[in-house]
Amino acid sequence: MAVAKIHTWKAFEYHWRLWTFFGLKPPPRNSVWFKPYVAYAIVLNISVTFLFPCTLIINLILAKNMNEVCENLYNTITDVICNVKFLNMFLVRKKLLQINQILKRLDMRAQTREEINELQKGVNSARNCFKIVGRLFCVALITSQLVAYLSPERILMYPAWFPWDWRASKRNFLYAHSYQLYGLILQTAQNLGSDTYPQAYLVVLIGHIKALSLRIKALGSEVTSFSDASDAELKEKIENHLYRELIDCIIDHETINDLFRIVQQGISSTCLAQFFCTGLAQCTIGVYTFYVGLDYSKLPNLVAYFGAVTAEIFILCYYGDLFCQANEQLINSIYSCNWVDREKKFKQAHRFLLQRSQKINTVMAGNLIPVSLSTFVTVMKTAYSAFTVLNKFN
Questions:
Q1: pLDDT-based confidence at 64, cuts 50/70/90?
Q2: Residue 2 belongs to some domain of the structure
Q3: What transmembrane ranges does the database entry give (predicted)?
Q4: Which of 31, 88, 134, 210 has the fewest Cβ atoms within 10 Å of its own Cβ atom?
Q5: Which DSSP state fits 214?
């Protein structure tokens, strides 16, 4: 039995560690740890996923003037959408687990050094993307601490409501600050997993499409012409082998299409939420800065926050473009294989594969908006336009 020389499911290793920590991957029901794990997951998600955004939402509702609304809005919107994305992750987790089995089958097909290198590049890119966004989130988290430390008066990192008066004493303030720090760290970790898994699955898809392109392009490239009748038997064996290889490539192509459909279902809602969140966050940060005024104790956090939400959708849209380019490269590889000198059955199968590949798959956010760099530019323009309109009310 053939053994896979690479394991592309390792591209999501960091993500599943996070999701296991947050209660999305319980042990088997017959395990002794199942009930304790479920209890742990419920307590963790009530204390953070439910209660933390409630403190921001209630404070926003109780805002007394436009200044307080602007100050609360961008944090509240981002946190609420973070939890919506986490809820979506909870709903699609079983579909994403199915992908591992499909990837194992495709990994078995990569045998040449060039194919393995393409897949390894995909795994490395997915991990690097996770690390880059993780570092940006860490910078935003650290700078949020500066808001409390650099302020001349006692304030929280982000405006929030608590059932006790946190201004009344230092102890009350420490309780509120400690809970906010606890909630912020865990919400940031949740958001890191939710915001980077679409890019990770896309880049692995791209790797498998490129590996298939190499496989198809190599078909018949080393076969010499046969003129001697004594070579007829050898020619027939080679033609049958090439035909079987082509049929296997057709099966691989259909498997990749199935993989794409599952990935599309798993990331569609998250991509749409990210576009909405980024545009709204950029707009509200701008309004807050110009309407309320620039507080230098909050400036590092605003810059880090703005950079993080912008970078994450740029990376997503960049990989969306690369995915379309990989599909076009696949069509070129099908044209480029040595099909002219092959037998009729090979040409028929080749024509079938060519027809199937003409429909270019495109990643869609919410099944409405293409995930591409042009969409990234549109989001930036829309955010600026909305900011300009809102700023006129100043």
A1: confident
A2: no
A3: 37-62, 271-291, 303-324
A4: 31
A5: H
